Amino acid sequence: MLGLFQLIILFGKYIFEFLSILITCIVVPYIIWLVLWLYKRKNSNFIDNVGRAVLNYTLSLLFWWVIVILAFITIIWLICDAPTDEYALMCITIGIFASIIIIVPIIAVLILIISIFGIERTLQGQFFHVPLSFKYLKYKEE
Hints:
Blueprint: H1 2-13, H2 15-40, H3 45-79, H4 85-123
């Protein structure tokens, strides 16, 4: 148990570095993409539809990440046998770390494969709707 608490304290010390990496690697590319899409979407329906598909994809990814993390927290919570208040934080932390260590690499590889396939189809001039993504923004007709 002492090792887990040391890990939590260590994670707390480097939270600024973790957030800066997260913002640099995840948030900034999407902001750049969003600005480019908003600027170029009036040029053609294809560019607009691809931009809408990417926005739908990223919002769906956010939704699925939240579901996966909450599922892991719930599973760990149940494994801890409905913990009392003193163990609640520990169980939630174990769930978050378990989801990061186990599920994140698997989902990252799937995201990479889907992204490469989508980029390839888009460069060929074909529209690609990502599986398991919701249609928050509707596509325009050609």
